[in-house]
Peptidase C26 (Fannyhessea vaginae DSM 15829), 262 residues
Amino acid sequence: MQYHKETNHSPISTCAHERMPRIGITTRNLCATDEYAALGVYIRAISACGAAPMLLPVTSDAAVIDAYLEAVDAILITGGDDVNPALYHEEALAQTQLPHDDLDTYEVLLISKAVELDKCVFGICRGIQIMNCVFGGTLYQDIPTQLPNAHTHSMRPPYFKPWHTVSIVQTTPLAKLWEEQILLTHNHVGVNSRHHQALKDLGTGFVPMAFSDDNLIEAVYMPDKTFVQAVQWHPELMCFDYPEHMQLIQNFVNAARDHMDA
């Protein structure tokens, strides 16, 4: 299955005396084989931006989570299966995937502690969803069922291609980062889309940065934190072909570099 085209994208160089930012990447527990893993595309994207990716195995041990956060400068919350609706006090719909309670527990601990410590945090797809739930937000469990007038958000491959557009909210960090792209495309920036759930009620502290062309929230940030941002699409799948999506990941790495000695 083709996710994106691999290209020769050289890592951002650092001076010999500089330490590379260490980016902790959330993993999944592959129960059938008792493995902890993350898709290689996240690792390649972080490496291409001049940071050291570090995989963080799933755990419910708060002391281990604390050790993770001491070892890394920033956290990438990756995509994956549905968040358990129990986290936002709802019964699961028939269309919602079976819960992975160990994963939910792990990410809730990791996100809440990272934000409390003002670590840089960037969420992708499931990442934006569980980050929203950690701070009291809710989700549409199934877009086709609950929002029948919305378009299809679960795209067909190739997954590195745009599927729909988003409009960027002015005065937000994403508007500043994508200023040239917004002017070029008249504020209709193409993104991919691999999800059937979406943000409904925003969690405490979050502000929208982008909306889909059918008015779903597609990006958020916390203005009171150094860098807490998340997007609903998958920039890691687009970044080697569309520079604006590499900008997103590079901006996250740059924030980690600026903040790592603070």
